[in-house]
Amino acid sequence: MNFDILDNLTKEERDAVIAILDEYASNGNSTTLNNILYQDYEEIPVDIGTFLHDPKYLGKGLIDAEGRFTLYPYWEDLLKEIYPDPLQPAKYNTLALTGAIGLGKSTEAVIVGCYELYRMLCLKDPYIYYGLQPIDLITFAVINITIDAARGVAWSKMQSLIQSSDWFMQRGTLTRGDVPEWKPPKGIELIYGSQTRHILGRAVFWAFEDEVSFIPTQDISKQIEKAKNLVNTATTRMQSRFMKGDVNPTIFCLASSKRTTQSFMETFIEEKKRNESKTTKIVDEPQWVIRTDKNSKEKFKVAVGNRFLENELVPLDASDLDIEILRRKGYQIIEVPMGYYENFRDDLDIALTDIAGISTSNTTRYISGERWSQNIDESYKNLFINEIIEVGNAKDDEAQYYDFIDMSRIDRGLLDRPLFIHLDMSLTGDKTGIAGTWIIGKKPHKEGTPNNKELMYKLAFHVSVKAPKGHQVSFEKNRNLIRWLRDQGFYVCGVSYDTFQSADLAQQLQAEDFNCTTLSVDRIVDRLCLPYAYFKNTIYENRLIIYECPHLTDEIIGLERYENGKVDHSSAGINSKDSADAVCGSIYNASQHADEFEFDFGEDLSLITEVSTTTSEENKKQQILVDFEEELKKVSSPYSHILKSQPNISNENLGSRFYLAQGIIIP
Length: 667
Hints:
The chain is α/β, with parallel strands linked by helices. It has five domains: about 1-40, no CATH class; about 45-290, Rossmann fold, CATH 3.40.50.300; about 300-360, no CATH class; about 370-595, Nucleotidyltransferase, domain 5; about 605-665, no CATH class.
């Protein structure tokens, strides 16, 4: 020990130090030291573990209706790291909590605030202890993006915990009203706010800024500036009022789920890491690390890209070599518990952000041009000879959409396949997008992998209809196309349309026995656009066969996903997505009928009846199937509606293959 430091002490202080050393040498503890430490306390604070579990403190508030302790072990371990000694300041001055959603980040920050408030109330006089003037106001503050959010989330959680505690309720006061609020004693205030002015002039000891990266503005630079101002205002007041020498007893908590790589929380954390801050504790974890009940031994892999590489869901049957190639390209490979597989398959970028806690770029290019092109089959063409046609409702405009269809391009073997049509309609301005997609079976089984239940699709056609200047798109011609397709022998199983001006179209087509459905491909639920998420999956899983289509391709690769989940065309790219919406809608509508058309890829009755003829019993089975086929041909033709209305047309004119209700194709 360096005894030179004793020279700077008064005689009384030197005597006290020597007495403390003697007591430790003799007994292993010091009554003199305890008296010095405890002389400022009205009550000696308990350790953090007792504070969490003892019903006298927060124990009752952290127990659910079934008697289970609700704080995840990860957070309790972190609290014990922050508070190794109940009489010493927190180990860190800043607690930055980010990562996945649903982890209990705000609960952790609130518990920190409750413990700091508890320890301060244990003091005889906090103002004397911290050397503050009576005019100062010691403040514990909850800050959020709006005043309602500040009061409705962390503030309510803090009030609930405090009001569940006998210790807190024996101190302070409870206001009257519909929503009682607990007020602390000893000149301490507990407030909430959303602006820097809400904490100006106050001696802030603890502050919690919740969802700091979700300032309500579309301008990232403005969002970052506001967040910086809030953080700087709070931390500056903490240091100016409470810091003595190099000891700062205050703690500032920030929490935000992942947003984008440009958001404030991301830049804040990167700066702290770059400066190797010793006073900042950063928590940045995926769901399954903190919520261990979500973890599992079975994992799948995700290739996390960067500003140059799009994120990829690695196929379940990918080899070690495939993984190594991805790494060499610059991908980071993460392993995710299998229970999350559908979430990542439905929308990879949202799952990475919300579940894995990995930030994406501000707007994400939604579909890779390379992955789209892998689905192109050059052996067939769009039934429409042009991707964009100009047809309107003028009296002298006699053109019909089907005038632009080349039926010589169709594979007649596909006529009986279930066809789903979607119309993304408009009057003027935007074009009306129309697309048709066939269900052609389940994805072919790959040896060594589980049977695939996902459907395969083939794009039959798409077109964007533009109204001539001064005119509108004709709704009647929209209907005429669908009627014409059925008359040509197409098995039109479903027609979907967005909500714009669609009631009249639906009523007339339903009266003609068409199955009509309203479908908005732009509908967002929990930041997920389901139709486009499914559409993307069919592309990335190579379950969609398409033809060469330059305009549609430009629309597809120009799509971007925004933070709210919306999928839209890029402002810097092609200024339309009419055909993309139509194709997406036709596939999504088809997917809703998966159970009806779950036949295997390329399956027909000839495959089903290919049985061995080695035994007479098996020959009988084959004959029964053939007899059954003949009976079914009489009643199950998908063209019966045509045959009834046009007796001159025969089955032979309509093709040689027929569809049955449970997915069997009969030759």
